[in-house]
Design brief:
The complex is a heterodimer of chains A (553) and B (355).
Chain A lengths: L10 H15 L1 H11 L4 E5 L4 E7 L2 E6 L7 E5 L1 H8 L5 H4 L5 E4 L2 H18 L3 H13 L24 H7 L14 E2 L5 E4 L18 H19 L6 H13 L5 H12 L4 H26 L3 E2 L2 E2 L1 H5 L1 H20 L2 H4 L1 H30 L7 H27 L5 H4 L3 H21 L2 H4 L5 H5 L4 H9 L3 H11 L8 H13 L2 H23 L7 H15 L3
Parallel strand pairs in A: 1-4
Antiparallel strand pairs in A: 1-2, 2-3, 4-5, 8-9
Helix pairs in contact in A: 1-2, 1-6, 2-5, 2-25, 8-10, 8-11, 9-13, 10-11, 10-16, 10-25, 11-13, 11-15, 11-16, 15-16, 16-18, 18-24, 21-24, 24-25
Chain B lengths: L7 H4 L19 E11 L4 E10 L9 E10 L3 E4 L5 E2 L16 E6 L6 E7 L5 E8 L3 E19 L2 E17 L2 H4 L1 E8 L19 E9 L8 E8 L2 E6 L4 E9 L4 E4 L15 E10 L2 E8 L2 E7 L8 E16 L2 E14 L6
The chains are: A alpha+beta (553), B mainly beta (355).
Chain lengths: 553, 355
Amino acid sequence: MSTERADAGTGAALLRDTVVALSERAPAVVAAAAEQLRGIRLGLSFNDGTAASLTPRRGRLVVGAGRADAADVEVVFDDRAMNLLFDLQCRPVDQVLPGSLDVRGAPEQVLAVWRAFTLLSQRGSGLRFVQRLWEEYRRRSPGLWGAVPAGGGTADVPEATGWTALDYLNRRRPAPAAPGGAAPDWSPATAPRLLWDGRAAAPWWEELPLTDADLVETMRVCRDRVAGEMRRLIPDREPRRDLYDLMRAYPARQGKGLRPTLTVAACVAFGGRAQDAVRSAAALELFHNGFLVHDDIADESTHRRGLPTLQVAHGAGLAVNVGDGLNLLAVDALLSNLTTLGLARTLGLIRETLHMCRESVEGQAMELGWIRHGEVPADDTSYLTMSTKKTGWYTCISPCRIGAVCAGVTDPAVLDRFDEAFRLIGIAFQIQDDVLNLVGDEVLYGKEALGDLWEGKRTVMLIHLLRTVPDPEERALLRKIVLRPRHEQNDADVRVVLRSMHRHGCVDYAVALADDLAARGIAHFERDLDVVPENQGKAVLRQIAHYVTSRPL
Amino acid sequence: MTRAVVDERSLGPAGPFPAGVPGGLRGGPLERQWLHYAFLSRGGDLAVIANLSVLGADGADEPPHRRGIVLVHDEGGGWEASQFNASQQDVPWSSFRLPRPRGAERFTVAAVAGSPALDVRLRGTGRACTSQCAPFGDGEFLRWQSEPGVLGSGVVTAHGRAREVELTGYHERVRGRWSWPALGGWVFGFVNAAHDAPGCAVVDAEPAPPSASVVFTLVQPRSPGDAANGSLMLWRDGRLVRHFPRRCLEVAVEGGLDRDSVVLVPPLAELLDAPVCAMVPGRLVLSARMGRDHLLVDFTSRAAARIANPCERGLRPFSVHETLGPCRVRGVVSGRPVAFDTRGIVEFAGGADEY
């Protein structure tokens, strides 16, 4: 049951909700605004008496409650200024009434703040989820625009006035019925767009301008589409109970949809049709699920995506067989591209997939070998190599390359352009995943809390801990605990390791390392992939690149 | 008294409007005068559009070019259009050379083949407004005068069938000098609130104008970058009561009209090298706000005729899409609400990759 927060409807709440939503669903927008602010701390006051602070931190925007203690720039809004901010079109001097938007600070910082607001406004206001937040705010605080009629947000608002054109189009679907009740002869397939905003024109006949994708929605659509394809690929025949039903059940524990989205987006970025990449994305997911089943057996994991692992629920024997079966179906799915994509692309897909599998099993071998032989790498380099092989390839690099192959790109020089950017982003993603295992909410995270510590997984935090603990006795004790097999582990000792990690700054170190890797990955993305024209597919890839930096930790 | 000879380009567009030039247009083939007429029948099942143009003479001793086209759309038969050689009066209704007509006067335009044809008596019920001047390109410009609320009564022939109709519509006088590549394109349209006066009494007593009319324009020249211009105007009872300038205007589109609903005209246009046209927007929304006044126009495309105009400077035609559909107008102006649902005609011009 959802409960309304005490400050709902206030300016401060609107700011917080907007930044949180953008961070989750359009992180590239937040990263770009944070880049403009560059360490400037903002104190924001609203005429409803609420206040908030806004601080850029490593590509994120952090909203604090209440008045800022030492703000570099103070901004005071009234309702009119809030509305203006959302519909930002003109220079403030042209539109803002005296006193409605008061920005104080050093001139260059004030300009930076205005650039950041402009950027958030221009790119955020095109996103449906942001519009919903602001429409709700307008409804509560009519201000400049007048109250939205009761029933706003439904398909038909009978007497809507005072809207901006784009806002109105976004709220009014479908169009009012034509006289006589006949169905409209036009397709609403293209999103509403501005031809004229009071200052700049876009010809009505030109292609749609690019907009920032709603990443959550995009990932959901890709995930669901690929999940449907996977269900279709798994046979509906005996033996159901001990094989095919289990195969079907495991992928049903849906993840975020990162890989399907990368595959489809890369295909679209190179001019392909999204549909062309769905079968291959499904094959990747089948491989992935097969690996996960085997990985959970090897790691003795108890939970996966919030539910007991397959070997816990059905025994290791059946689980191994299900994993094998999923891998087999994945090969079958790849081969079935022959009839739709042709021989050259299918061979390219097989080649890419084999490479991915090889990297994954090599990475898995490195990690399992460390555990088998009681080793903990002395530095981060070994970890980075292992992580690249084990997860970097199948999580990020291969989905992109496979998507591009689906679009007909087979030139290795072009495909290699994904590697460094998504290698770094993939490692950053993995480190953040490991951090979440220590500090995240199990319900949200979906995996067993502290499971990595129970398994003695060689994470950046663990490697850093054993490298930096100065006291030899403490280090020996920690080493003894972490090298213990899972079934000999106990909760008290796991808590000892966790406390040591916090005490020695291991989590902060890992977060900083992930941020650094992500930043480098984003830089590579912009540089290496400049051959890809700006299009919707590339926009989604960019959002994913920034998604890593904006995950809540 | 003689007028000083000046380079018009140094002073910008010539005025005042409409300064008819004795002896015809002498500014070259890009000099243009257009008379535009667009009407909808009271029942909403018939649309009539006519455009009569005078194009500048090619040489000093040559006469200007006169052209005319008439289009009719009825719900049953769809579009029918003349070629560009439609028969027209020597002095059409509301000619540039005449003062604004008083009372009802005859207006005829017809395809050489006889259908479509328009033979009606027209009567203005409101005040025309010199809308705007749009300078662009290298000394080119476009200026026009809008007059909604024009009533008509007479005979319209479409698909070979003549019928008596009552019309409510719009008239425009356009003058300027422009070339198609430089002009780029435009979005223009009008709507009149439903006008119920039976027989519209165009001959007898002064008829009442529509209770409200809206005319809007967005001109999108290719250059310079800041040449785009637009406006939205509201008439009440025949009088212009609010002009929202471009800074107060927002224009947005959504979706696209089914290509099967877009018909290429005139019939000979199929012989031209007409490139694939852009998708006609399925829905057009304009919002305007100025002070406490605000107005919203929500137009939905239902059918369109793509007029392929020959270009004076190249082989490829320029496209004007005459689009019909229902329209909703809502707003508050001078503290009074504006609310009516009607049918409108919108032009989407440009957008066929001509150049």
